[in-house]
From TrEMBL:
Entry-linked Pfam families: EGF_laminin, EGF_LMN_ATRN
Main location: secreted
InterPro entries for this protein: EGF, Laminin/Netrin_ECM, LE_dom, LMN_ATRN_NET-like_EGF
Protein name per Swiss-Prot or TrEMBL: Laminin EGF-like domain-containing protein
Annotated compartments: Secreted, Extracellular space, Extracellular matrix, Basement membrane
Disulfide topology: 45-54, 158-167, 170-184
Gene3D superfamilies, per the entry: Laminin
Source organism: Oncorhynchus mykiss (Rainbow trout)
Length: 220
């Protein structure tokens, strides 16, 4: 008895993968692939889709794959679709028109990574622009919200008697090195310090044991 091998048409697969007999079922690929394997897993998903039934968008894309159109999956805009200004590798479709970028790079914040995080400044919504670390010369508390302007980068909360856009100098009435030594001191303190060292050189007086002298040169 001669038996003929029968195949399923393109876009169909035979249940259980048997060579003949049985039923041919249509591949369920949401119109994003034309072939599937013997288990019904779609092959070569297109239109930026993936998954066993081309039922998911590729990383970096979002959308509803069940529509069955080439535009189902759109590129994430975090905040822009151009590579220079796409600061999250993935995004989520959380509702109609509600897209959230869920992996913003360090220095970026917002539902679409559209703002600079605390301690950074710039405008990521402009192509070619990015968020860069504020330069305050170590004279701010980096955990203090708003210690620098997120647009201009101007340092707003300089401490240790420092001042300037980058906390790069001692504030008025104080003297010293704000950048390296970080020793800004008031004029009175500087004068007292100078007096103290002058007195040390005076062999007739021991400033370390003279109680009255120590009180006179106190910085408090």
């Amino acid at each position: 008895m001669m038996m003929f091998l029968s195949f399923c048409s393109s876009g169909f697969y035979r249940v259980g993968g048997i060579l003949f007999g049985g039923n041919c079922l249509q591949c369920e690929c949401n119109d994003h692939a034309t072939e599937c394997d013997i288990n019904g897993v779609c092959l070569d998903c297109t239109h930026n889709t993936t998954g066993p039934h081309c039922n998911q968008c590729l990383p970096g894309y979002y959308g509803d794959t069940s529509e069955g159109t080439p535009e189902d999956c759109q590129r994430c805009a975090c905040p822009l679709i151009v590579a220079t200004n796409n600061f999250s590798p993935t995004c989520l479709l959380e509702g109609p028109g509600q897209v959230t970028c869920d992996q913003c790079q360090q220095g970026y914040t917002g539902t679409k990574c559209e703002r600079c995080a605390n301690g950074y400044h710039g405008d990521p919504t402009v192509a070619g622009k990015e968020c860069v670390l504020c330069e305050c010369n170590g004279n701010v508390d980096p955990w203090d919200p708003g210690h620098c302007d997120t647009s201009s980068g101007v340092c707003l909360k300089c401490h240790s008697h420092t001042s300037g856009d980058d906390c790069e100098r001692c504030e008025d009435g104080y003297y010293g090195d704000a950048i390296t030594a970080k020793n800004c001191q008031g004029k009175r303190a500087v004068m007292m310090m100078m007096m103290f060292f002058v007195l040390i050189e005076d062999s007739s007086t021991d400033p370390l044991t003279d109680t009255n002298l120590l009180q006179e040169t106190s910085f408090t």
